[in-house]
Each structure stands twice: as C-alpha cells, then as structure tokens.
User: Fold these one by one.
Assistant:
Number 1:
Amino acid sequence: MPPSILRTATLYNNTWRPTALPHVTTPTTHFPSRYCPNARHIVTTETAPKINLNIRPLPPKTSDPLRILFCGSDHFSCASLSALHNLHKAEPQLIESIDVLVRPGKKSGRGLKRIAVGPLFHLASELNLPLHQRDTFTGWKLPLPGRVTDNKTGKTTIFPHPNPAVTQRPHHSFNLLIAVSFGLFVPPRILNGLKYGGLNIHPSLLPDLRGPAPIQWALLLNRTHTGCTLQTLHPTSFDRGAILLQTPLPGVPIPPDSTTNDLLTTLATEGANMLVQGLRNNLHVPPLEPLPPPPAISALGAPFERRDAPKITKVDLAIDWSSELWGRDQKIFPNGQWTASDLARRYRAVGGAGGAGGTSTRPRGLWAYAFTVSQPIEQRLIFEDIEAVPCPPALREAVATIVKIKLAGGDGRDAAPPSFPADVGNVVFGYQPDAAVPEQQFRVPMMVEEEGTSVVMPIRVPYRVVDGVVEVVDGDDDAAGGECNAVRVRRVKVEGQASEEASRALKPFWEKNVIAEDVAVLEYAVDVIAKRVD
C-alpha cells in the first residue's frame, strides 16, 4: 500500500488514525484535488481504495498557546506574517503573541547615507509588533516575548500585550520559531530551546528546487507547475526538514509569460494559507507526521527532474552569446542553444524587478559588454526590458544577406540588396565565459522599430538552402516551429548612466550605413542570429 493512500485515508487532529492495513478492496472513494481542513497529503483526482481498517481512537493533539518568533525579510514573508497576525486576532487561544526578527538594514543610495530596510520591517512596524534586528544568532540569547533590546544602547523596550493577563506572565518564553524567506540559518541551539522547534514555508514542491531561489529557477527551468511546502527547520541543513504539508499535485499552474513577481505573489498567498492551516491542525505538535516526498511527475516539466535552486548571481544575468555556459544545461536547452523565448524567459525570471532576489522595484536587467564605434571602448550595457517577438521582415532580410554572403564567401559586390535598410545597423558585443579563455566578439544586426525607441535583434532566425539559394523561413512556416525569433529591447542602461530608451542608449555602439561589402569583411555571430533548418 503506497504511503499516499494511507495519508489520504487518514483524518487528523481530533479523530482517528489507522494502526494497520489488513487488506484493500475495490477503489470507490474519490478525494478532492486540493488540500482540505481534515487531510493534508498531496492528493489528485485519482480514486482512493476503500480500506478495511482496524482503528482505535487516538487522543486529539493539543497545542499550548503559541508564542511565535517570526523571521523574514521580503514580500513573500509579509504575506505569512499578515496571515499569522489575522489568525492571532481571530484565535488568540491558538496564538498568544508574535514577535518579528529581521536582519538590520543596509546602507544604500548616494554616499551610503540612507539605511534601506525590507518590507517585513515596515509591515511589523505598521502592525506594532515587537521588532528585533539581528544579522547573526551567534552570541544571542532569545529574549522573552515582547521585550526588544536595542543592539547599540542595550536599552530594553517592553511591548504591552493587548491581553493584560499575558503581560503579567514574563516567565513564558517563545515556543515556536517560523522562518519565511529569512536568509539566516537557525542553529540547533535556538531550535532546541523551543518546545515546537521551527517551521518554514518554502515556495516549491520539496525536495524539488531546494535553495534560496526556487521561484526564479521554476521559471528558468520552464516548469509548468510549482507549489509550496510547510516543513520543519532542519538542525544542520537548509530545506531538508520534515514535510508536514504541501500543495497537492500537479501543483500551482505557472501561466505563460509569468514574471518572478507574478509567481511570488501567487505563492505568497498559497504559503500563507498553508501556514495557517498547519497551525490550526496542530501539525507542529509532536509526534510529527511527515509526508512522503512527491513523485517525479511529468506535469512539472518534460522531462521532470528534481533540481536545486542556487542563488542568482551576476553570471546568471550575463547574456551568454556563445552558449558555452547556458548550453551545458541540456534540460533547459536540449539543442545546446538558447532561443529568443529563452532569453525573454530569463529576463522575466532573473532580470525583472525582484528577479535576482531582494526587494528592489527597479529591474536588474540582463547585461552584456559592447564596444563603442568612435573608439573601441568596452562598456557594460544593461537590458532592462526584453520580450520575444517575431522577427520583422527588414531584419530577416538583413539576416538573409549576411548568411548568403558568408556562405558564398565572396566580397559582397554582387549581393542583392546591396545594403541594409536604413534603420538596421550592427552592435558588437564582447563575451568571456571563463577567465582562462580570451574574450570573444559577437556582431549582431539590430533594427530600430517604427516608434523610434525600441530595438529588435534577431535570434536564430531559421533559414534553409535550396539549390544553393538561401531562403529565410517565414515565421508562419512549419520549419520555424512557431518560435519567436527576435527579441525586443525597450530600455538600456549604459553602466554609470541613467536608463534610457534603447535606441538612444545604443547610439554610441551603433554601426550604421552597412553595405554588403562591409558584411563580407566583418565577422558576424551567424550562429546567434541564424539557424539552418534543412
């Protein structure tokens, strides 16, 4: 009998639990496709067997009034704190008090004169909750609930509890720690001092996407579904605690063109509701009842393979013109090369606002080095708005010209048309995937769109060679596979300067008035801009 059947057949909290599974009869009972107040396993619309159970009543689980130390930082953790605060007001017999722990603000802005604090700091202040600030647990002894000591002055402030009877019980300590998007490891010394240990909401279907960036990697891996997990805090490792509750399979759908912020908003609500349900059902009360991990199902990706979700770094934001780094991941790029849709997805995952982690509302962007035309100075360009689009006819014509001349190997004098359209030029990018290899250069044609602000660059425009003649495949052709084969960039920031419309920002890097004879002698990134399909 699979563990999942046992879980779905078991009622929790105050009813019964099977002690044995003597035999199984014909499946007749249907179970819901979402978790419900009385059951907490991952369930699907499959039928569950009718089980002949030898059962005995078990005493209901009960919890002491919870004195919670909530640890978090960002918008994802704000949803959970808001839900806990509402639960505290609605059911004070379940939650006696909530204190909040955040990491100290960091200096930011010009001259580093401003202290930037995260969203959870502001929310805790608005809710008038006791607010502690620590960047390490080393040397810190947990205070009593409602007592906040200033790290600089050593002065302790006592927050009065709405219930005077609670204020008069100073000997009661925290009995549960909840960490949601906190970023600091909670040591065993702290967890062992809490009656109910620690809980965590993780925005993935653990053990899939363990790590600090599960939302970003769900998008990068082109997952179709994801979810949330309520787990215990492990004494030695991140994201390896006992799974107490989890989004039912196949999970939460990820709509096409989702951004990190879109998915974060959805999962923040999912996780907050899950946390409330877990506390109401006393899942934190020993003995704990871990769920089995979910199976590897095709609904999470094709093929689905459990992956880690490491921190997003500057390298992940660099456009890999050579495909030497991105192309190594055959699960993301089966052909070893990325497409326009892949680049746009990467922007939505890690380049948009909040995509690389943190709480900034300004896009991080994807970046690349490029060379100015007047004198070859290399500068970093940050693309702040990227989307996949069909390649415009004028740009497809330029790609066809480049491919024809490069395949023919001539001087370009007989090429038709003899020059690029007036709104098409080149930009030369530099890329060095590894410090041990020399920098490579990639010349890419681009076109300024009619509105005069956005630019479009071709990405692996399909072409075929028929009887020695190069034919660029139209986007509606079956050989194009329905893929967008260009990306539109609306804004670009030259490092050290303000963000501008893409056409204006790229002017110093724009090779204009390109003729066919120029194409013959210039090196182009043909493997980036074109793809042979015959």
Number 2:
Amino acid sequence: MATEQVQVIVFAETNLDTRIAFNTPLDITVSAFKRDFERVHFTCLPDIGEIQVNGLMVKRKSCFYYLSDSLPLKYAFPGTRRTWFLHVEVRHLNDPSPSPQVVEKRLGVPYVMFLMD
C-alpha cells in the first residue's frame, strides 16, 4: 500500500497584485516552492508572462518576514496543517529594465496604472 503524501492549500498574493490558491506538499522547502509557484503562476495566468520569484514572506504581528531558501515551509506555519497564506515577491522575466516599473493595481472598479521608481 502506497503512502499518501500530505498536502496543504496555499493562498499566495504577489507584488503584481495576482492571487493564486493551490495545493503543495507539506514537506516542501522554500526553494522548491518558489520553482513550483513560478510554474503554477504561468499556467494560471499566461497573459502576464513568466515570472521569477525573488522572495517568500509570511506576516506575523503586522510585520512581513522573508523566508530563507533552505527552510522547510511548514516551519513558518507551526501547528497549521490546513491553510497557508504567503506574500510572494516576483519580477517579470521578459522585463529588461525593472525600474521604473509600471504596476497595475485594481482599486475599486477601474484599473489604475502606477509608475513606481
């Protein structure tokens, strides 16, 4: 009888204002999660193009904390084996110059373009 791998659901929001929910193995490292997230993001949102994940963060007591690549992601969520919430810092792979960066944010009904230096 094969052992079933335990999965958790991850809700991730990026600095591009994209949001994705998907399942991932409980024992995944931050480094492996970054690669998986890049693939899933492109599969779900191909119009945005390919991205590179620069960092994963968790929020604790109103502060965001970066997670190191070698960390098993489950250690950032002690006692929580059902749902994880992450902020993901990404950049477009096809963007030759990251600055100034145009970021599209949804504010209310219309889309507003912000030019960020």
Number 3:
Amino acid sequence: MTDLEAPLVCSLLLQAPPGEFAQVVRDLQALVRDKELLRHEAARAGAQRSKSHFPPVRINKHTVLVTHYNDLGGNCFFDPQDKLSFAFDHLSRVAGKYRLHDVLLDEGELRKGALHKDLEAYVSRHFPASNCCVFQKNARKTQIFMACIEAHHYQPSGCWNEMYVGCCLFHFRIKETMPFPFSQFLPELQVNITNIRKIYVIYSQFLNTKQ
C-alpha cells in the first residue's frame, strides 16, 4: 500500500454503511496487497467509527456502549454499571481484559443511576433494538451527565440498513440538594440510513438550548 492508497482505504472504511464495517474490510482484502497496512488502517478507522457510532458490547449480562465519553485511552473503556475498565477490539467488537476501576460513590453516582433507569424505560418504549448508557464527569462546580442512545436495524440480506445515535448532556450544580434546572441541555443527534439501491445518508446535528 502506497502513501496515496492508505488515505483512500481509510476513507472507504469510514464510509462503510452501518453494521457492514467488517464486510468492507473483507472486500478490501481482495484489492489491497499489503495486508499489514490494511489491518493497521482498519484498526485506526474502526476506533474512529466506534466512538461516533456507539457500538454495544455485552458485559456480565448487561450492555455497555463504546463512546468517546467512556474512552480511557489505549482502546480501553469504562463500564459505568459494573465500575470496570475493559479492552475493546474495534474489528471483532469483542471486550476483554476486565479490571476494577475506582469510582467515588457520591451523590452524582446516585443521580447517574436514576437517570440510567429512566433512560432504559424510555428507549425500551420508543426504540426497537436499542441500547443506552449514562456517563458522568465533573467540571469545576458542575456535574455533567451524558445520556447516550444507540438503536439500529441491520438487514445484510436486504437493500438497506439504518442506525440512530443520540446523546444528551445534562448539567447540574454539584452543591445543590435539588438538581439545578437544566442550565444547559445539549442534544446531539446522528442518524445513518443506508439504501444500497439509491443513496447513503448521514445526518448529524448539534443543538445548544439554554433554559
């Protein structure tokens, strides 16, 4: 693979339809002679796609989303339910190398648990084949909760696939006994709809609504 071929291969991998990344990698194996560089580009593109597509992974009978919000670096991610870190293979989509991850059990953890429970009830009613996760971080005197939703409907034998990815950010004042009225509500929406016979559409929008 030449210096010109590598960016082209990476671009093709990043444009793979939802749920078909592995198939595109297999197809490129028939076209690209340098298998080692292909694996390198596939791993790099897979890591980039995962953080925006929120792929679900099963851990201890529950589902965790792989996102940039729970990225610990080095292809390791945080499971907010079991308080574990795990390694994630972006090509096979398999988790492993589980380790305990220290988390402070404070009021923020209680809020996150309550938000996750309500979010699960919401997505089960409105999104078929859906998964969700809630992540938390502190910034100065504000708690920020990231509520992430992933829903998909893949039909490899049909003519189209679809994927929905959404994320809402909630900001709370830390020292308030009651949650601060959503001072910032930042919904981020990405919808990928693929119709192989006609068109491939990616829609992404970021809204900032202050109340």
